[in-house]
Write a structure and sequence with these properties.
This protein is of the alpha/beta class. The protein has 20 helices and ten strands. It folds into four domains: 2-124, Response regulator (Rossmann fold, 3-Layer(aba) Sandwich); 161-289, Alpha-Beta Plaits (2-Layer Sandwich), CATH 3.30.70; 298-385, no CATH class; 400-506, Homeodomain-like (Arc Repressor Mutant, subunit A). Helices cover 53% and strands 12% of the residues. A hairpin with a 5-residue loop joins strand 7 (205-212) and strand 8 (218-225). Residues 405-504 form the HTH araC/xylS-type domain.
């Protein structure tokens, strides 16, 4: 509801304007009828309103003093002058105090309706922006925010929320380290019609606030509604309605009673989703789909250890195939999948005498990287088996420096194409995590970052040498299909947008 104060010393006219406003648009509520400027100021000092309609000539305190107070003390309030005078000097002073409109009595109904719609659009837009800024701060800013942070621009301007429901969404798989843009289309969420669906399904929806999570493949959606809603049922309906490019997991929280806690609530939803999302499934995570802990059979564990000790890789591989089948039958969660693969690595580390510790710098990250690169359980096991073979039977590689030079040359020749670490590993017959580690040791960055750096440097050259070529075309020419993602990467690397960089450099 948009709160309105009207200041007018002619009482019949005061009541008439109030009726006109409330009749013209039910979203406006006249909360104060001030018979003079003094009453208006006293109310404004202790209450919040969105719009003030004021006459100019009033006893005790005139309308210009009200306008001055609003501009200096509460600049977010929109002021409208109602006057019986067509005096140009009054209009000039009203403009100086940033009045939205100068209306001449008597007010025409059509003119008022047009003005109210303009006011509503402006106020709702301002409120949406303020809410968005606060929610970003609560989600991504300080861990604890005091009450003063709940206020925007001015200590007396409160931001009010109705019912806020948090929804956390992840596509493909849960990420714990990083995901390359080439392995997950950054435009994926733009093509997901979730917001449109919610708008059509939830009649009391006031606003939808969407934010990218920590990684490209996750988003946070905060829904503000007028009434209480069954959000879990709504998101379940969304998942059932069509096929998706990647598996999507959604978890919806209960209505948030304290907006300051929204960051903690989303964090808890994230943890709950990680523990309960069945790998490769589109599903809503709730109390009903809690999963039992996956355990390898004791006989399988003992056989694995035996095969590792004896160096019998074929038998080891057959056991992994059995484990994969067991996982498929039991609909394993990604969390248990990662824990099981880490346990197998621990067996190799413990029982394989030829094992080199430096082959595994961070098991948790490297296993998650395998999962993020893969599109199925069979792909995960295929890469994992290849990695285990290398760990169990290390063999002499070609000179590492020579290998990195070959990879570098390949990247230089193909950087304009879609290249991933997985593709490079297949090209050179290596495990992606191992290739990435070798490359980082010699180049100081991963292959993915190296490719990104080359593309940015080439784009800089083209921005300066080809001033008539549009930046979106340069993005395509250096290997970025998504121009908006190119702009984001370019600014992150240079601190400037492509057009700003071009302008700055060419003006030197």
């Amino acid at each position: 509801m948009i709160k309105v104060l009207i200041a007018e010393d002619e009482f019949p006219l005061l009541r008439g304007i109030a009726k006109l406003i409330e009749k013209a648009d039910q979203d406006f509520s006249v909360v104060m009828l001030a018979k003079n400027g003094k009453e208006a100021l006293e109310y404004l000092e202790n209450h919040e309103v969105d719009v003030v309609f004021t006459d100019i000539n009033m006893p005790l305190v005139d309308g210009l003093q009200i306008l001055k107070y609003i501009k200096e003390e509460k600049p977010w309030i929109i002021s409208v002058v109602i006057s019986g005078y067509q005096d140009f000097s009054y209009a000039q002073q009203a403009i100086r105090y940033e009045a939205k409109r100068y209306l001449i009595k008597p007010i025409e109904n059509h003119e008022l309706c047009v003005l109210l719609q303009e006011l509503k659009d402006q106020i709702l837009s301002q409120k949406e922006t303020k809410k968005d800024m606060l929610l970003k701060k609560l989600l991504f800013g300080k861990k604890q925010i005091g009450n003063s942070e709940y206020e925007s621009r001015n200590s007396e301007e409160k931001i009010e929320f109705r019912n806020v429901y948090p929804v956390y969404m992840v596509a493909k798989a849960y990420c714990t380290s990083n995901i390359e843009e080439s392995e997950f289309d950054s435009e994926f969420w733009n093509n997901v019609d979730f917001r449109i669906f919610l708008k059509n399904e939830i009649q009391s929806l006031i606003g939808t606030y969407t934010y990218y999570g920590k990684y490209l493949n996750e988003i946070i959606v905060l829904l503000e509604t007028e009434a209480t809603e069954n959000i879990e049922l709504t998101v379940a309906k969304y998942l059932q309605r069509k096929e998706h490019i990647f598996p999507i997991a959604i978890i919806a929280g209960d209505v948030c009673t304290d907006i300051f806690e929204i960051g903690n609530i989303v964090s808890q939803l994230r943890k709950k989703l990680r523990r309960n999302w069945k790998y490769g499934r589109c599903e809503v995570i709730n109390e009903d789909n809690k999963c039992s802990l996956f355990r390898m059979k004791k006989s399988t564990e003992e056989s694995l250890q035996y095969m590792i000790k004896q160096g019998k890789f074929k038998g080891f591989q057959e056991l992994l195939t059995e484990i994969q089948k067991q996982m498929e039958e039991e609909n394993i969660t990604q969390y248990d999948l990662e824990e099981t693969l880490k346990k197998i690595l621990m067996f190799i580390q413990t029982y394989e005498t030829g094992f080199l510790n430096e082959e595994i710098s961070n098991p948790t990250r490297e296993i998650n990287d395998i999962i993020m690169r893969s599109n199925s359980l069979s792909e995960i096991f295929e890469e994992f088996v290849f990695w285990c073979q290398r760990l169990m039977f290390p063999k002499a590689e070609e000179n590492t420096a020579a290998l990195v030079r070959r990879v570098d040359a390949f990247i230089q020749d193909h950087y304009t194409e879609r290249i991933t670490t997985k593709m490079l590993a297949q090209e050179f017959g290596l495990v992606p995590s191992y290739l990435s580690r070798l490359f980082r040791e010699y180049k100081g960055v991963t292959p993915n970052h190296y490719i990104q750096n080359i593309r940015i440097e080439r784009s800089k050259e083209m921005l300066l040498n080809c001033p008539t070529v549009m930046t979106k075309d340069i993005a395509l020419m250096v290997g970025y299909v998504d121009a908006s993602y190119f702009f984001k990467v370019f600014k992150k690397n240079t601190g400037l947008s492509p057009s700003e960089y071009r302008m700055n450099e060419l003006s030197k």
